[in-house]
Amino acid sequence: MYSLTLPWEALGISAVWLVLMAFMVALPCSQVGSFLILRRMSLVGDAISHSVLPGIVIAFLFTGDLSSPWLIIGAGIAGLLVTIFIEMIHVGTRVKSDAATGIAFTALFALGVLLMQLYGGSKVDLDPDCVLYGQLDHILEYEAVSIAGLDVPRPLVTMTAVAFFTLTTMFVFYRVLVLSTFDAGLAASYGYKPVMVHYGMMFVLSIVVVAAFQSVGAILVIALLILPGAFAYMCTHKLPVMLSLAAGHALLSAVLGLYIYAWFDCNLAGAVVLAGAALLVLAWLFGPVDGQLWKWKRSLGEVEKPDDLIL
Questions:
Q1: Which residue ranges traverse the bilayer (predicted)?
Q2: Distance separating alpha carbons of residues 97 and 102, to the nearest angstrom
Q3: What is the CATH classification number for the domain harbouring 273?
Q4: What gap in Å lies between CA 12 and CA 144, rounded to an integer?
Q5: N or C: which end of the chain has fewer CB within 10 A?
Q6: In angstroms, rounded to a whole number, what is the distance separating the alpha carbons of residues 114 and 287?
Q7: Residue 123's Cα: distance from chain center in Å?
């Protein structure tokens, strides 16, 4: 029953598409999420993942097409608005940043749920379960695109394009992103604008979240943003290695998630996140930087304390 060849025998070429789709969803989340962790903004990813819902619903009301690029635009605008909304609450009142974040994303998520309930029977064909958990295991039901003689599911093509855009953007702006993350004053002295970098990153994050929304929903995308970066940070304090390990975590989570999905006939998105969480537990126990085993060895003087984060 738990054969290592079961997913590939039972699903055939579909297993390849499912793994690739899961990886293409997790990969950009892992890279953006790593910087969110370093900037101590993990909760912002949570906020944006919830706040894009009203943007998606409103855009769908006008287009009636879940694959329309207007959904990404609407969600991107909603993502930027929530960051501005958080800043307005934090600066204009005595409310702390984390509380302002909680106020903003719950209000916008509630608005999105209300819009779905009001128009659910007429114009909006959005399943609440899909909103929460996604439909990663249903991508094969969508229209296929012929590429080099292969019928590739359209959601995979879209997500691959988003992953390419995200990785390219982060590569081009890597220097300014690193400087503004670790020393905003130094970045400003070089002529960069940390505020613009912040909002640019929020816009990219919004695009990644809405692209992943259809596959993993508003809840599980939070895990894909946080788990890979947290896993990598427990294993290394070298930034390039951290980003590589986060990408490796995304790939391994996709593969292991497919096995859980095939063995237990469960939700694929949930299986991928569960696999990622299991990897995080292993890093917490045995990670060479923050793993409990290595901390115990350092307390005995058997190994040296690792260096601080190296860029």
A1: 6-29, 41-62, 68-87, 99-119, 156-178, 241-262, 268-289
A2: 9
A3: 1.10.3470.10
A4: 17
A5: N
A6: 44
A7: 28
The residue segments making up the domain with residue 108 are 6-299
Q: What is the pTM for the complete model shown?
A: 0.89
* Separation of alpha carbons 192 and 208, rounded Å: 24
Residues forming beta bridges with residue 262, ordered by sequence position? none
Answer whether residue 110 is part of any domain: yes
Q: What is the pLDDT along the chain (311 residues), one digit of tens a residue?
A: 567 787 888 788 888 999 999 999 999 999 999 999 999 888 888 888 878 888 878 877 787 766 677 777 777 777 778 888 888 887 888 788 888 888 888 888 888 888 877 875 555 556 666 666 677 888 877 778 888 888 888 889 989 999 999 999 999 999 999 999 998 898 899 888 988 998 889 889 988 988 887 788 777 898 999 999 999 999 998 999 999 999 999 999 999 999 999 898 888 999 999 999 999 999 999 988 878 888 887 777 766 666 555 55
Residue 61 inside a domain? The answer is yes
Domain count for the chain:
1
> What whole-number distance in Å separates Cα of residue 225 and Cα of residue 206?
12
Taking the C-alpha atoms of residue 99 and residue 229, their distance in angstroms, rounded to an integer, is 24
Tokens representing residue 307 in the block: 């260096």
CA distance 178 to 4: 41
| CB distance 30 to 229 below 8 Å | yes
Asked, for residue 1, whether it belongs to a domain, the answer is: no
Angle at 299 between CA 293 and CA 300, to 5 degrees: 95
Enter the tokens of residue 55.
């943007």
| Secondary structure (3-state) at 151 | strand
Q: Are 216 and 224 in contact (CB under 8 A)?
A: yes
